[in-house]
Amino acid sequence: MTTLVSTTDTVTRDALAVLQPGFTGTSAPDWLLRRVGEGLASVGLFGRNVESAEQLAALTARLRSEREDVLVAIDEEGGDVTRLEVRNGSSFPGNLALGTVDDTVLTRAVAWELGRRLAECGINLNWAPSADVNSNPENPVIGVRSFGADTGLVARHTAAYVEGLQAAGVAACTKHFPGHGDTAVDSHHAMPRIDVDLDTLHARELVPFRAAIAAGSKSVMSAHILLPALDPTRPATLSPQILTGLLRTELGYDGLIVTDGMEMDAIAGTYGIERGSVLAIAAGADAICVGGGLADEETVLRLRDALVAAVRSGELPEERLADAAARVRALASWTQGARGAAPGPGADTQEGTAPGTGAGIGLVAARRAVRVTGSGAPLDGPGHVAAFTPVANIAVGDETPWGIAAELTRMMPGTTTDTYDSERKSPVEDILRAADGRRVVAVVRDVHRHTWMGQALDALVAARPDTIVVEMGLPKAPPRGALHIATHGAARVCGTAAAEAVVGVPA
User: Fold this and answer.
1) Residue 383 belongs to what H/E stretch?
2) CA angle, 96 as apex, 95 and 101 as ends, to 5°?
């Protein structure tokens, strides 16, 4: 778009204020600093922007030298979805592990410690937690990112997580409204559709969001999903009935409404990001998240100009854009007052917390989430780790390592490892050859969703009944192996806890 705009007029500044863009590199580029000076009120960070806590603190300080109250956001769920520890794996288990333990004091403490680490790095908005009820076990994008399939459990842990995170001075962004749990399609790739009636939505999907609102969640993220019972034509992110009618009016939510990433194909492939952004703000959204895939100045200018042009043409009321920008600035103001917040309930009472790292509370939680079935003996010597690797979804990404091989090798020197995927023609033969008589530890992830994985695992256990199986995804398949260890997530600390269970270290 080539609309000519002034960089100082109110509409242009408001259009910049509602954007939450990303960028490439580990330092703030000149174009980003310039736009922050012109009115850009938020910046989104991803794994590509993170090298270390020190580097991140310097980056956010540089942004605040241009605008003291800039919102710096990140997609840091802990567990499988980590940006702070994208290269090593998270020090915190994810939602399913916390839901499995079902101790809200622990969930609040984990969220507070994660929030403390974010705040130390200068981050004041976290696009978390996921409040989705994972009612469809075939869901390809939520899974272990949900606290579970029980509505009440998800609601109480969502509230605890919001309270813990915000007690540390970091605004929560509860997602993906009005609930992404009953989908079989990943909205990164296409438009999911949930065909349930209003009674089901109110009794299931909306309950955790009501709890988050009651807990004071400072922001809510919309989902790119179609719910015909609420709006038969537009996805939630673009629907006035859902964002304004349901979330604002019916649920009484007065905080910031943030969109999920606008470059996701559910929006970009159907409406385009410019048209989608205009429709989202008109529908009631206040902030446009973009930058996971499109992370350049041109994207920011395209969206800014699209919003300005929509106001000039009368398509987007100027008052609606001004209201959205005001909500962004109000949240930025809250984060300034929330700096240095006191510890949340239970944050200093957990045994083994390691100050400055969070590894202690995270490992405590990961250990408590492990479930072991079977009567086989633990591993008592070097083994062979066979890691079955499915294709990672975009939310998780493929940069972050997972599994137990490194930790198990430390505990049992001489342990070997290899990875096996759906392209491997004779995985069991390869595994047995590589094991060379050693006991096999098969590590899987969501085996119930991958036919090839289940078949290979069955054949492996038939050939070697003493195989130990570690499930690091959603444990929906029947337990297999002499020992079956479910971690309820693939965070680094979940791998450590699993390795301890493999060798029989008491929890």
Assistant:
1) strand 383-388
2) 100
Containing H/E element for 12? helix 10-17
**CA dist., res. 365 & res. 98, Å (int):** 7
Is residue 130 a contact partner of residue 155, using CB atoms and an 8 Å limit? no
Per the DSSP assignment, residues forming a β-bridge with 420 are 388
Q: What angle do CA 86, 258, 167 make, to 5 degrees?
A: 65
Decide if 384 is catalytic: no
> DSSP assignment, residue 485?
E
Nearby residues of 121 by Cβ (< 8 Å), 6 or more positions away? 53, 56, 57, 60, 84
pLDDT at 349: 40
For residues 21 and 43, what is the distance between their CA atoms, to the nearest angstrom? 5
Q: Where is 410: in which H helix or E strand?
A: helix 405-411
Tell me which of 75, 186, 260, 286 is the catalytic residue: 260
Distance of CA 203 to the CA centre of its chain: 24
The answer to whether 238 touches 269, Cβ cutoff 8 Å, is: no
CB 65 within 8 A of CB 102: no
Cis upstream peptide for 178 (omega within 30°): yes
Dig out the tokens for 90 from the structure: 């998270």
Nearest to 495 by CA among 93, 102, 144, 81: 93
Model pLDDT, residue 183: 74
Report how far residue 217's alpha carbon sits from residue 175's, in angstroms, rounded to the nearest whole number.
Answer: 10
Q: Residue range 95-103: average pLDDT?
A: 98
Q: How many Å apart are CA 432 and CA 416, to the nearest integer?
A: 12
User: What amino acid occupies position 374?
Assistant: G
| 416 three-state secondary structure | strand
pLDDT at 28 over 90: yes
**pLDDT value at 6 more than 90:** no
Rounded Cα gap, residues 187 and 193, in angstroms: 10
Whether residue 132 contacts residue 182, with contact meaning beta carbons closer than 8 Å, is answered with no
Torsion angle of C-alpha atoms 88, 91, 94, 98, degrees rounded to 10: 160
Yes or no: say if 259 and 222 are a contact pair by the CB < 8 Å rule: yes
Which ranges in 50-203 belong to alpha helices (H)?
A: 53-66, 95-101, 104-120, 151-167, 198-200
Give the active site residue among 188, 450, 484, 488. Answer: 188
Instruction: Specify the 3-state DSSP secondary structure of 388.
Output: strand
CA geometry: angle 129, 490, 154, nearest 5 deg: 35
Cβ atoms < 10 Å from Cβ of 437: 6
Catalytic residue list contains 188: yes
Instruction: Give the pLDDT score at 139.
Output: 79
Give the pLDDT confidence score for residue 395 in this predicted structure.
Answer: 62
